[in-house]
UniProtKB/TrEMBL annotation:
Location of the NADP-dependent oxidoreductase domain: 17-92, 111-223
Transmembrane segments: none
Marked site: Lowers pKa of active site Tyr: 79
InterPro entries attached to this UniProt entry: AKR, Aldo/ket_reductase_CS, NAD(P)_OxRdtase_dom_sf, NADP_OxRdtase_dom
Protein name as it appears in the record: Alcohol dehydrogenase [NADP(+)] B-like
Catalytic residues in the record: 49 (proton donor)
Family from the record: Belongs to the aldo/keto reductase family.
PROSITE patterns: ALDOKETO_REDUCTASE_1 (PS00798), ALDOKETO_REDUCTASE_3 (PS00063)
GO molecular function: oxidoreductase activity, acting on the CH-OH group of donors, NAD or NADP as acceptor
Lineage: Eukaryota, Metazoa, Chordata, Craniata, Vertebrata
């Protein structure tokens, strides 16, 4: 049901995982349970999302002897904020919270996993080629355009309404979200769509029963417009502007 990418360590990483940013306590446990019941074996977390203890509860409830899911079969990613580089900072990130963890991005990823924003409006073609050359697996965050972000702007492009994607959805009797997730998985990119809605959680992993034609893969890639939804901003003189954009190491001026 859920294909895998193989990391340079030999470990298998399911191509579709459940995102959990913005999944509030009170909602996230049920979302993770629905995901595990629907065949997800990859959950994307972070202490900064403020919900890992409840995700840990879902794991306790669903995994273990006689519960049908083995802990070692579930790929869990957690990540540390950029100020957490000391080994002592790792402990709050998960063993205690989540009981079981496979990858802590930034510190313990064996240089085999890279997580970046990617979706058809930010196709990351150059970065993906770079990753392939170096046997790195790319994970796409905000794969559906992160429509529940607090800073969503009314004039920004709406990925899930993109006509080229809607046309493919109609052809395959799938939803735009499924076309987008299929496009990523078909080019070997791991995706971690977030949802707290049972039907969408199920829908987002039902992407392994159809195949986009090579030309259709190109059509989806062609809607790229270098659009980044996840840009930290600050307010200067009453205007919202990208934070640190003038810094020499600001990452988002590069073509990926
Ligand atoms: P996303 O997955 O692109 O979009 C989530 C939104 O799409 C939610 O509003 C969800 O609604 C809705 N949705 C889900 N499935 C849908 C479907 N089939 N049809 C229509 N709408 C659907 O946004 P994201 O949360 O920004 O990104 C995904 C995950 O990536 C995060 O949760 C997080 O785990 C990770 N992430 C990592 C970083 C990083 O810096 N490393 C940054 C951003 C995100 P409902 O929930 O209401 O169903």
């Amino acid at each position: 049901m859920n294909d895998f990418a193989v990391l340079s360590t030999g470990r298998k990483m399911p191509l579709v995982g459940l995102g959990t940013w913005k999944s509030e306590p009170g909602q996230v446990k049920q979302a993770v349970i629905w995901a595990l019941q629907s065949g997800y074996r990859h959950i994307d977390c972070a202490p900064i999302y403020g919900n890992e203890p409840e995700i840990g509860e879902a794991f306790q409830e669903m995994m273990g002897p006689e519960k049908g899911i083995r802990r070692e079969d579930v790929f869990v990613t957690s990540k540390l904020w950029n100020t957490k580089h000391h080994p002592d900072d790792v402990e709050p990130c998960s063993p205690k919270n989540l009981s079981y963890i496979v990858v802590v991005l930034n510190l313990n990823d064996n240089n085999s996993v890279l997580q970046v924003e990617s979706h058809p409006y930010l196709a990351q073609v150059e970065l993906l080629a770079h990753c392939r050359d170096r046997s790195l697996v790319m994970t796409a965050y905000s794969p559906l355009g992160s429509p529940d972000r607090a800073w969503k702007h009314p004039e920004e492009p709406v990925l899930l309404e993109e006509p080229a994607i809607a046309a493919l959805a109609k052809k395959y009797n799938k939803t735009p979200a499924q076309i987008i997730i299929r496009w990523q998985t078909q080019r070997g990119v791991v995706t971690i769509p977030k949802s707290i809605t049972e039907s969408r959680i199920k829908e987002n992993i039902q992407v392994f029963d159809f195949t986009l034609e090579p030309e259709e893969m190109n059509q989806v890639t062609a809607v790229h417009r270098g659009w980044r939804y996840i840009v930290p901003t600050i307010t200067v003189d009453g205007k919202s502007v990208p934070r640190d954009a003038a810094h020499p190491h600001y990452p988002f001026n590069d073509p990926y």
